[in-house]
Every structure is written in structure tokens, then in C-alpha cells.
From TrEMBL, chain A:
<dbReference type="Pfam" id="PF13416">
    <property type="entry name" value="SBP_bac_8"/>
</dbReference>
<feature type="signal peptide">
    <location>
        <begin position="1"/>
        <end position="20"/>
    </location>
</feature>
<dbReference type="InterPro" id="IPR050490">
    <property type="entry name" value="Bact_solute-bd_prot1"/>
</dbReference>
<keyword id="KW-1003">Cell membrane</keyword>
<keyword id="KW-0762">Sugar transport</keyword>
<keyword id="KW-0449">Lipoprotein</keyword>
<keyword id="KW-0813">Transport</keyword>
<keyword id="KW-0732">Signal</keyword>
<protein>
    <submittedName>
        <fullName>Multiple sugar transport system substrate-binding protein</fullName>
    </submittedName>
</protein>
TrEMBL record, chain B:
<feature type="transmembrane region" description="Helical">
    <location>
        <begin position="207"/>
        <end position="226"/>
    </location>
</feature>
<feature type="transmembrane region" description="Helical">
    <location>
        <begin position="151"/>
        <end position="176"/>
    </location>
</feature>
<keyword id="KW-1133">Transmembrane helix</keyword>
<feature type="transmembrane region" description="Helical">
    <location>
        <begin position="261"/>
        <end position="283"/>
    </location>
</feature>
<dbReference type="InterPro" id="IPR000515">
    <property type="entry name" value="MetI-like"/>
</dbReference>
<keyword id="KW-0762">Sugar transport</keyword>
<keyword id="KW-0813">Transport</keyword>
<keyword id="KW-0812">Transmembrane</keyword>
<dbReference type="GO" id="GO:0055085">
    <property type="term" value="P:transmembrane transport"/>
</dbReference>
Amino acid sequence: MRRRRLAPVAALAAAALTLAGCGLGSDGSGSSAATPTVDANAKVTGEVSFQTWALKPKFTSYVENLIKEFEAKYPGTHVTWLDQPGDGYDKKVLSQASAGQLPDVVNLPPDFALPLAKQQMLLDVGAADPKIKDEYVEGGVQAYQYQGLNGTFGYPWYLNTDIDYWNATKFAAAGLDVKNPPKTFDELLAAAKVMHDKTGGKEYLMSRLPGIGDFTNAGVKILSDDGKKFVFNTPEAAALLDKYRDAYKAGYLPRDILTQEYLGNSKLFTQGKVAWTTGGGNAIQDFVKDNPSLKGKVVPSPALDTPPLYVQGLSVSAKTKNQAAAIALARFVTNAENQAAFAKIVNIFPSTKASAQDPYFSKSDGTPESDAKVLAFESLAKAKVLTPPIISGATNDFIGQQISLAISGKISSQKALDAAVAKANELLTQ
Amino acid sequence: MRYNRWFTPWVLVIPALAWLMVFNLWPSINTVILSFTNARPIGGGTFVGLRNFERLLHDDQLRWALLNSVIYMVVCLPFLTILPLLLAVLVEKKLPGITFFRTAFYTPVVASAVVVALIWQWILDDRGLVNGLAEKLGVISGPLPFLSDQWLLLLSAISLTIWKGLGYYMIIYLAALGNVGRDLHEAAAVDGAGPCRRFVHITIPGVRGTMILISILISVSALRVFSELFILSGGKGGPGGRDNSVVMLIQQYSQGFEGNLGYASALSIVLFFVTVVPMLVLARLNRRGAEA
């Protein structure tokens, strides 16, 4: 009797365990190799899927025309376009990758592409297309080359960077000259003090916590040469945090920054609560759209120190059944002509070397909006990826938490950095 | 046609059983298995034995999260057990316009947790309503750091939970109060018992079972708090991540391409046991009380 009762329970447990075993997935990637196995000059024909990120409905006609032109250039091809919503794109790509259903050509920023490249889910497009280094800007290509991995795992599609924006009214109120804004971090701190003192602590210049990008800018090495260890707990990084902590303690930064999300800086600037923010080349339009009272009061200037480089790219799935068509499509979408056309309908910058001389990006019509665009375009020449793509998710959160502890004065900067590095290394190696 | 065959009960419970197995039993078993691995969202993982549980012992963040969860439960439990009962007693009376108050007290329950937390964030901000008013009235010279101080942030989140939960538990008490015999109150009143005495000696014993149920519900939800702390801390767990709850930690560790599903599963198991203990204690207390 007891046996009878136990039997179904045992069967149930066995079934559950078998099913649960599936949860682990395979240790490998399901992909045998990431190196292309077809000749890049093979005939381009057949079906290929193409996934973009939040381009519908604003850029539907641009993408549809692009696809039509590609299909006309390569008769016999058929492109299936998938556009995913802006929110939750990482989760969507993650679910596609775990199900082995990545589209043939997929828009992935470098930090999304890295974990997929590690699992050999992306094609080394550099091996398939040796010209990639000649045609695209160095920073764009480097963004898809990772320490510890051989290959280039995406075509850079478009670029952006940040420049500085200042509120002229607040500068005038504090007796500061907006035409001669701070150019270094130390000048920024000095201006923050003036603004605080002259307005009785009512106005703020800065409203941003430092991050990995600021450490890179201060000359701090983030990762070891082999990319296997974080090493940013240096005295230079601690000194930078000390400066922020002292500024916070003196009231030069709003206290809320310890709980604000990343875009707090830009939001507070738009609300007219702080006098400085960073933003892309088109940020003035957004500020004025959200707060029309800022019209004519926002002055752009180049970013402090090295500007950050933001890259978007197209990667090719290692599992694609039509490598020739997938590579051709990725190349076609990111070629100089198509990137330039895209950059003229949305404020991004092309990643192809051929676009560098295009006067559309390099000549201003004299308006602050146009000045900002040109400044951003010029900044791209020295812009760098300041935050290694390996820093994401829990690692990023933990580093941020330790930085806020140091800024709030609860622990010393060095102790916070040591804890951040120890935890980041633990998360990296587990 | 015969319906009383031996398999009839099984046929009736199969849909519910299948649901439970697919959405409860199987994920639970999978969580236990994952907790012994270093699984990632892509690429799977390997068996690592008790390494995740060893890490738990040295995890400062977990210590803070557990402390926060316990404080949350200890503060919320008395407030959310007693205050809704008092409110229910007040609005139970059939007075003109009482429906308005019932609705008003229930409104925060209907509002989405995220919307409510965002409104509270705006109220408690350094330049928000509370600090603005207090500064205008000269009560404080500088803003109180409701959202940037570890303990004030926790207190703000607890206040939000209590404010939001009042209406919900009030409705449960209202239903329970309907079962407390009116004749008992009348008899006690005739014997000279005042409202306070009647509340202590008739109302509370009358809703004792409901109080235990509510205590269990509050304990469980307080230990599993997420939305309030997440929104008020901007998703970052406050200064140094010291205002994280265990659920927030699980979310942080499991998110993204590099999420550590193994460690997040080990945290889930800890949360499960932490949640079950007060539930068992309260259930035991209830049984003892009923036997006495």
C-alpha cells in the first residue's frame, strides 16, 4: 500500500528533476563556431531576418525603403523586418538567445553583444569582412572587440557622444560667465562652489554621481590587461571620490543624487533645477520641448576631458542559415550612404570614415542647436568608450552603491573602492 | 450516467493540480536545483555544490536586506493589525456620508503601487511637499533627507506600506465585524460596559481569527517588500544599497545577460524560509489561542 502511494510521488519527483535539469541549459552555446564558414563573396540570395530596436513607427519608411533597396540590389533575397519596443529589449534579446532564435541580423549595443559573443552566438564579422577596419571609424569597430575574445562581433551602425549644456540664466544669477564655462572637473567644482555661495545654497550646478566613466577620464585603469580582473581601486580614483564627497558635504550637489537614477542629471536640468548637464548633440531640442522656458537659455560646450563614445551596431547570429545574405544586409544597412541618410532624419552620427567630411555634420548655421550638433560631431574624433561593456547588471549596481556610500561619507573612498572591486571581481569570476 | 466513479475527484482536481505543478511545484524544484549551480541566463551552468550558500554567509548586502525586512515586519505588523480594525469599527457605523469615508480609506489600495510610490517620492523629495511646507513654516532650517538617509528612507517606505495597506485590511475587518453579534454589544452596554471595554472584550475576540490571518498576510508581504523600497530608492537600494530588501537583491542578481541565477536562487530559498518561520509561529499561536 505504502509502495503504491510512493510510486506516483517518486515518478513526479523524477519528472520534476528531469524538467528542472532543463533549466540549466547547456554549458555550451549550441553554436559550433563563430567564424564564418561561407565565402563572403558567395551569392547573396534567400531569406534573412533583421531586428531593430524601437524604430517603428518613427522610422518605418526609412527602414522599409532600405529593405526594398537591398532586395532590389540582391534579387532573390527577402528580408523579414522585426522591430522590438524600446523597453525590455535586453530581456527580449536574452530570451531569443536562450531559445536559440536570434534573428540573422540584430541591432545590439556592445554591452549586449559581449555576453552573446562569449557564448559563441555571434559571428566574427571581421573574419568575414576584412575591410571593416578600413571603412568604419576605429572607436566604432573597437567597441565590438573585447578583451579575451578574438574577433569583431558587430558592424558599428551609428555613434553618439555627450557634450556639456549650461543654463545661461543660472550662470548670470551666480555671476558666472556662460561663454567661458568650466573645461575641467576642477573648474567645474570651483564653479559649483561659486553658484552655491552666490545663491545662498539655493541653486546647484552639479547633480551627478561619479561613475566608471569618470574614473577612466581621471586616468584610472579599470580592468587588468587580460580583462580578467577589475583594478580601479587606486589612490587616483579615491581622490576623485574625495572631491565629490567634499562637494556633497559642502552642499554643492543636491542630496537626492544618492537615490537618483542615471538620468536624474538631465531631468533636473530640464526642470531648471540645476545649471549643468551632459547630453547628446540633439539635447537642446529635448530640453526645450519638455520645458519651453529654457528656449534660448541653453549654451553648449565640449565635454569635460575625454567625451564618451556611445555605439550602436548590427551583429550577425552565428546560427544564421544564410550567412552571405546576413553579412551583406548588415554591411548594406551600415554603409556610408545609408548611415548618412539615417543621420539626417535623426540626430545620430555615422560610423563610417567616408562621412567625416560631410558638411551636414561639420558646419553650423549659428543656432545653439546646430552648434551643439557640430560640437558633438567634432567630439567624436577623440571620444572613447569610457565604461567597459563587461560592467553591467549587478556589477554596475554594486559599484554605484559603494560610490554613494563614499559620497555620503559613511565609509572612506578607498574602502568603498576596495569593496566595489572585490565584489565586481567576485561577480566576474563566479 | 454515473458520476461517482473512483476517478471523478481526480478529473475535477486535475486542472488545478496541473496549474500548481507547472507554475508552483516545477519552478520551486528548479529554483532549488539552480541554487547549487552557477547558471547564467545564457550558456547554462555547472554544479558548484554549496558555494552559493557559503557566499550568502559573507554577504553584507544580504545582512542589511534581512535586517530591513525584519524591521519592516516588526513595524508594519502592529500598525496594520490594529489601525485597520479601528478604522473598520469607525466606518462600520451607519451614518450619513459614511460611504465617502469608506471609499476614501480604500482609494490607496486601488492605486497602483508604482504610482503611489512615485507620488510619495515627489512628496518626500528634498524639494518636495513635506520639506517645502516645513521650511516655509520655519519648522526646519534645511530639508530632511527622507530619500537619501538610510533609516529615513526605510521609515518612509514603511509609512507608505502602512498608508496603502490600511484600506485593504479595513475591508477584511469590516466583513469580520459583520459576524460579531450585535446582541453581545447590547448586552454588555446594558451591563454598563463602555465603548473601550466592549472593543477589548467583544470586538477583538470576535475578530481574533481574522486578526491572525491579517498578521500572517502582513508578515509575508512585509518580508517580501519590493515596490515601495525600489521606487523610493530610485531602484538603487538607497545609499550603499543598505535599503535593499531580499526581493530587490534577487532582482539585482538575476537581471541582465550576466545575471547569476544560481546565487539569486539561493537568495530565494533564504527568503522562503524567512517567510515561512513567522507564518508558522503565528499559526501555532492561533492554535494555542483557540485551544485555550
